[in-house]
Amino acid sequence: MKRIFNVLALSALVLLIVIVVRALLHTPKITDQVETIDYALDEGRMLAHLSESIRFQTISHQGSLALNTDDFDNFQVWVRQTYSQLDQALELNMFNGTMLYKWAGTDSALKPILVTGHYDVVPIIPGTEDLWQQPPFSGVISDGFVWGRGALDDKSGVIGILEAVSYLMAEGYQPKRTIYLSFGHDEEIGGAKGAALVADYLEANGVQLDWSLDEGSFLLDGFLPGVDKLVATVNVAEKGSTTLQIVGKGVGGHSSMPPNKNAVGFLAAAITKLEKDPMPGGLDGLSLALFDTTSREMPFRLKLLFANRWLFSGLIEATLAKDPATNAMLRTTTAPTMLSASVKTNVLPIEAIATVNFRVHPRDSVLSIFDHVSKVVANDNVEVRPMKWDGFGLGQPASQVSSWESKGYKNIEDSVKNIYGDVIVAPGLMVAASDSRHYGRVADDAYRFNPFPLTKAQLTGFHGTNERIGTDDFVRGVKVYIRLLELGSSQ
Ligand SMILES: [Zn+2]
C-alpha cells in the first residue's frame, strides 16, 4: 500500500516538475534583434492634413441613395492638390471614387505590392451628435488627439500612406518593386464599386501582388491579460458571413384552443439547442500562433497553462470561449438577430422564424455550417432555410489564410519593431470585413493591420462616438508606413 502511495506521489512530483519546467521555458522567441530607427517629419503639417481630411463628409449610407457626392469629389481634388508632387509623378486610375496610384519600380520582374485604405466613413447615429466631445466632422486637434469620424477608420490609414509616400519621394527614394496605393470610396458598403473593380483591373492586366496591406487590427494596448507590451496583431485572414433562418412550424388557428406547443415553442427549443451546440472550435492555426506568441509574455500562472496545452487545452479553450472577443477567434459564431411569428394577437403562427447570423471561421464553409445547424435543430417541426437575399447569395466564405512566415509578413513585423521597439507582433484573425475580401484574389498574401496603437477606451469610437487618434500615435504610424514601403519595395 505504502509502495503504491510512493509511486503516486513520485508521479505527481514528476508531473509538477514537467509542468513548471515547460512554463519556465515558455519565453519570448529570440528573433533577430531589430534596431529602432527614426525619421525627421514635419509633424504639424501631417496632423493638419489628417485634420483637414476629416472635414470632408465622405459618408457611405446603406443603399447609397444619400451619397454626398460633392464631398467625395472634393476629397479627391484635395488629395491631388495637397499631395501634388505625388499626384504628378505617379500614374492615377479612377474606379468611380476609388483612387489607384502606381509608383513604378525599377525592376519589373518583381511582383508589386499594394498598400490601401478607405476614405469613406460611416454616418453619425442621429441623436448622438451631442455625445461627441468635439463635433464629429471638425477634425479638431486637442488634448493630444485628432478628433472626428474617420480618425481611426480609416482616414488615418489613407493620410498615413500618402504622407509616407510623399516623404519618400521628397527624399529621392526610388522603389525597386512597384508599389500600388489605393484609396477606397465604398468600403463601408461592401467595396463593390471600388476595391472589387481595382482587383478586376489588376487581374485583367496580369498583375499578381506579392502582398497587400489593408486596414485591420492595431497595436493593441491593454487587451490581453497580463501583457504590458503593445501587441501588434497582423490579421492574416478575415471571417466570412452567412445567415440562416430557423423556422418553427405549427398548424395555425385561433389562439383560444392552442396545442401544447406551437411554432414559437418549437423555434424556442431549436434556438436553445443551437446555443448549447455552437460550431465546434478550438485553439489551432493562426489563433494558436497568436496565443503561443503572446502567452510567452504573460504572467507565470498563465504561462503554466499555455506551456502545457497537452494537459490544459480544455481549460484554456473553455476560458477563451467565455469572452465574446476571444470566442470569436476560436470558432464560427452564432448570433440570432431577428424574430417574427404571428401577425395578430389571437392568431397562432404557422411559422415562427428566427434569423441567425454566423461569422464564418476559416476552418468552416457556408455549407458545413448549414449541415451542422440542420443536424442540431432540424426535425419534423423545425426547418433550416438558407437566406439568399442578404446580399451575399448563400453567404460569404472566410478569406484564405495568408502566411505569417512570408517575406511580406516579416517586412511588416520588422517595420513595426523598427519604430515601436519592444512590442509583440503576432498573426490575428479579422472578425469584421474589409476591402481585402476583394484584394485577396490578386495577392499572394493579404494582410490587414493599421500601424497605430489602440486602447480599449478608443474602441467605442469605431462606428460610434468620440472617434479619435493620438497625435503621437499617428506620427509613429506614418513612420511604420515609411519603413514598410522601404523594406517592401527595396528587394
Ligand atoms: Zn474601415
Number of self-contained structural domains: 2
Indicate the overall shape: globular
Output the CATH class name of the largest domain: Alpha Beta
Number of helices: 16
In whole angstroms, how far apart are the ends?
70 Å
Query: In the CATH hierarchy, what is the superfamily of the largest domain?
Result: Zn peptidases
Rg from Cα: 26 Å
Which structural class best describes the helix and strand composition? alpha+beta
CATH architecture call of the largest domain: 3-Layer(aba) Sandwich
Main sheet properties = 8 strands, mixed
Number of strands: 17
Topology:
Blueprint: H1 2-25, H2 43-55, H3 69-82, H4 84-89, E1 91-95, E2 98-103, E3 113-118, E4 141-142, E5 145-147, H5 155-170, E6 179-184, H6 195-204, E7 209-221, E8 231-238, E9 240-249, E10 253-254, H7 263-276, H8 285-295, H9 300-306, H10 309-322, H11 324-330, E11 333-340, E12 347-348, E13 351-360, H12 366-377, E14 382-386, H13 407-420, E15 424-430, H14 436-439, E16 443-455, H15 456-459, E17 468-470, H16 471-489
Parallel strand pairs: 3-6, 3-7, 7-16, 8-15
Antiparallel strand pairs: 1-2, 2-6, 4-5, 5-17, 7-8, 9-13, 9-14, 10-12, 11-13
Helix pairs in contact: 1-9, 2-5, 5-16, 10-11, 13-16
The structure holds zinc ion.
